[in-house]
Write a structure and sequence with these properties.
Elements: E1 12-13, H1 21-30, H2 32-55, H3 59-87, H4 92-106, H5 113-141, H6 144-172, H7 179-185, H8 188-198, H9 205-210, H10 214-225, E2 229-230, H11 250-273, H12 275-281, H13 286-314, H14 316-336, H15 342-355, H16 357-369, H17 373-404, H18 407-428, H19 437-440
Parallel strand pairs: 1-2
């Protein structure tokens, strides 16, 4: 049930507003982008099982196909961040998903390795552009009490998308030896539904106010929250371009966000893109490896839900540190004991899936809280882009590492990356729990 608007007549901040049905709809619609991200990056792992022998792809080519969407997200996140800070959130909020539909459908007719890479890069560009747009819009409308869980829910939807991809993949891959074409096209369905649902979403009043369009911002605030709601000025920052990110100390924040985000996704993306192959190397073959990947994905979802539920209780800093510490420990054990019994291997993978939830959820929470409205999109976009460089390199290197060194050393490498994220978090992670956006954006 929605809480009723405040009955008092005095001014109140949007950061202190009650939770409305509008917020719930906005969170659901904003989750479409992360859902597609998880779906697109996971479905390729199952599709590659058919594509590889049909096209005779070697390890480097497999890695490039798997990493191509992440490369696209690198460019798309950066571009989307710049565009949304300059032109607003509302316009790109629908257009980017229309592009996902077009490029996903085009994959059905692809018969060339390089064309497949190009199309998946373009899909990645469109999905990447959605991150700074959707997360900024949701952040700027959501009251502080619900901001962490709501933004965290977007990460949860990443894992929902990944889990759905494994289930859909297992079904469609058995249709025919060309089932991989339907796998790749299938992303167009959730993209189209999300684009339609987003039509009519209002512009962010915080962004309008940052552009001096006060009357328009007031109209939107009044229509949603009532006549006594206001938003606080966050910074007064007016500098343009990426240079604004490190004015007044923001360079340190962007480096922190990029470092921990990269450390969180490198092992995760490797597991998703080549989960069945990794599990096969650990003794699980065929359909058992595919279904185990789906179960692990569901447990990753559980871990993110638990993190989202405890983010306000534990705080951002504690949640991040504990997540890296425990997930890194499980990867270390996998690397040290790759020949352990099957049930031990599955328990360790399940533990990693649950413990990594905190680091995954905070990837979108921290950058949206640590930067003011004027540069929020660029900050989220740049951090997402830079972290995807590591994610793409990690994904690209996994098949080669598995072929040359085996599963054990590959898992030890993933553990080393996670421990690096732990060290960065202990040294630099701030606490933003319970603070308004005006407070969290201050240096």
């Amino acid at each position: 049930m929605d809480q009723p608007p405040p009955s008092r007549t005095e001014i109140f901040r949007v950061d202190d507003a009650p939770l409305l049905r509008f917020h719930k709809r906005l969170a659901l619609h904003s989750a479409g982008g992360p859902f597609l991200d998880g779906y697109v990056l996971s479905i390729i792992g199952i599709a590659m099982v058919q594509i590889t022998p049909q096209w005779g792809l070697h390890s480097a080519q497999q890695g490039l196909v798997a990493a191509s969407a992440s490369l696209g997200i690198f460019f798309g996140s950066f571009l989307g961040g710049r565009l949304t800070d300059r032109f607003g959130r509302r316009g790109l909020y629908t257009v980017d998903l229309v592009a996902v539909v077009v490029f996903s459908v085009a994959q059905f007719w692809v018969d060339d390795f390089w064309w497949l890479v190009v199309l998946r890069v373009l899909i990645g560009v469109a999905i990447g552009a959605d991150y700074p747009v959707a997360t900024s819009l949701l952040t700027e409308f959501t009251p502080k009490k619900y901001r962490g869980p709501f933004i965290g829910s977007l990460t949860v939807m990443w894992f929902v998308g990944a889990a759905v991809a494994y289930v859909v993949g297992d079904i469609l891959a058995r249709v025919s030896d060309q089932g991989w074409r339907w796998l790749l096209v299938s992303a167009a369905v959730p993209a189209a539904l999300t684009a339609l649902a987003r039509i009519g979403t209002p512009e962010s009043p915080r962004w309008l106010a940052s552009q001096g369009r006060i009357a328009e911002a007031d109209d939107i605030i009044t229509s949603i929250f009532g006549p006594h709601a206001v938003i606080e000025n966050e910074s007064g920052l007016r500098a343009g371009g990426v240079g604004a990110l490190w004015k007044s100390g923001y360079l340190g924040r962007i480096l922190f966000v990029t470092a921990f985000w990269t450390a969180a996704i490198v092992p995760l993306f490797a597991v998703y893109a080549f989960g069945p192959k990794i599990l096969a190397g650990l003794g699980l073959d065929g359909r058992m490896a595919n279904m185990s990947s789906a179960v692990i994905t569901i447990l990753l979802l559980v871990g993110c839900v638990l993190a989202m539920a405890t983010i306000n209780k534990l705080g951002r800093r504690t949640l991040l540190i504990q997540s890296f510490a425990w997930s890194g420990s499980t990867l270390l054990l996998l690397g040290l004991f790759p020949d352990a019994p099957t049930y031990v291997i599955l328990c360790l993978f399940a533990s990693y899936a649950i413990f990594t939830g905190g680091a995954q959820v905070l990837q979108l929470v921290y950058p949206n809280e640590l930067f003011p409205t004027e540069i929020r999109g660029r900050a989220v976009g740049l951090a997402s882009s830079l972290s995807r460089v590591g994610g793409a390199l990690g994904t690209y290197m996994v098949p080669t590492a598995l072929d040359r060194w085996g599963v054990g050393p590959t898992m030890l490498g993933a553990a080393a990356v996670t421990v690096t994220g732990l060290a960065v978090s202990v040294a630099f992670a701030p606490e933003t729990r319970g603070k308004s956006l005006a407070d969290t954006a201050r240096i």
